[in-house]
Amino acid sequence: MNNIKNIRLSQDNFIIELEKSSLKLNYKDEIDKYIIDISNMNIINATKTAIFCSTYCFIKNFKKKLCWLVKDEETKRAISILRLKNVEQQVKNQTQEKKVVLAS
């Protein structure tokens, strides 16, 4: 991943502006956090994205936490090892299963 120039939110996307390109991710805005979907990324790209963006947001003093929606437990563990203060991780399928159980 190139150096992050800026992170901004549009109505539909969490946009990470890099030196030569940009990355658009789906997100949901909640009261105390942004839930950002990186479940389509492999473990290396998901980990890099979460670490670089979380660090950038911490330095820029974002008020909300970043909750990364990942594809599996292995990716969740890879991100959680660093114990970043402004980060949470959730496995996408587990999140969807909880919603189904609560709705039943």
State which percent range the strand residues make up: 25-35%
Query: Which runs of at least 5 residues are low in confidence (pLDDT < 50)?
Result: none
Q: What would you report as the Rg, rounded to the nearest angstrom?
A: 14 Å
Helix content range of the residues, please? 25-40%
CA(first)-CA(last) distance: 42 Å
Describe the largest sheet. 6 strands, mixed
Helix and strand sequence: EEEEHEHEH
The whole-number mean of residue pLDDT values reads 83
How many helices? The count is 3
The geometry reads as: globular
DSSP strand tally: 6
**Largest beta sheet: what is the strand line-up?**
1-2-3-4-5-6
Report the structural category.
alpha/beta
Written overview of the protein:
The chain has a domain at 32-103. 36% of the residues lie in helices and 35% in strands. It has three helices and six strands, in the order ββββαβαβα. Strands 1-2-3-4-5-6 form a six-stranded mixed beta sheet. It is globular and about 30 Å long.
Task: List the main descriptive attributes of the protein structure presented here.
single chain, 104 residues, alpha/beta, 6-stranded mixed beta sheet, 3 helices, globular
Summarize the structure.
The chain has helices spanning 43-59, 73-80, 92-103, and strands spanning 4-9, 13-18, 22-29, 33-37, 65-70, 87-91.
